[in-house]
Amino acid sequence: MIHELGKENSILNYFLAEVRDENIQKDPLRFRRNLERIGEIFSYEISKKLNFIPKEIQTPLGTAQVNVINDQVVLATVLRAGLPMHQGFLNYFDRAENAFISAYRKYHNDNHFTIEFEHISSPKIDNKVLILLDPMLATGASLVLAYEAMLDQGSPKHVHLVTAIASKEGVNHVRKKLSNKNIELWVGAIDDELTSKSYIVPGLGDAGDLAFGNKE
To answer: For the domain 2-52+68-212, what is the CATH code?
Structure first.
């Protein structure tokens, strides 16, 4: 199932507009904060899909019954671009466990590359809800490989894949590779094109560089 939140008018579109704007992008602090706020909005929407149980809460004047989350959430993020969105999710799922995936594009010639994984730091994910974050879904290869790598940590009960901006090609790749699985894909906006170097058009550029500075 694919949820494209940007199709509906909401404050999310304001934050998406700002992360795309080349003038506002000149302020790394605001760029990171906008990705964080996008993560918070996704958190709220995904929370509606979790399991809840009633709980009696003692107030100063009596007791109140409140439905609270009954799932253990694991937030997994592809470094380094995913860190601001991860913080947004952690602001809401403050009792979540956390996983971090170190991955990069290894170029073999001008345009051909493979996704290389260096390290995963993760708790066990058996029977937990896995939320896997990557702000940009270009070809879709890195997100699929990150998901498959996380399965070494166990079998989650449900998976939410989250990205701020995706390409149609990337969405189709995820749908093809991860069909018939207990997985939902959450997207802010879906763009039409990829460049020859697999950057999304119009996209927003390199999210990692915009958030944390240019890399060598």
So the answer is: 3.40.50.2020
- Secondary structure class of 24 (helix, strand, coil): helix
Structural domain boundaries in the chain: 2-52+68-212
Environment class of 21 (CB within 10 Å of its CB; exposed 0-12, middle 13-18, buried 19+) = middle
Q: Cis omega (within 30 of 0) on the bond before 28?
A: no
pLDDT digits (tens, 9 = 90+) for 107-152: 656 666 566 677 889 999 999 999 999 999 999 988 998 999 999 9
pTM: 0.91
CB-facing half-sphere around the CA of 167: CA atoms within 13 A: 20
- What does the alpha-carbon distance between residue 163 and residue 193 come to, in Å, rounded to a whole number? 16
Strands (E), 48-153: 52-59, 62-69, 73-79, 97-107, 113-121, 129-133, 136-137
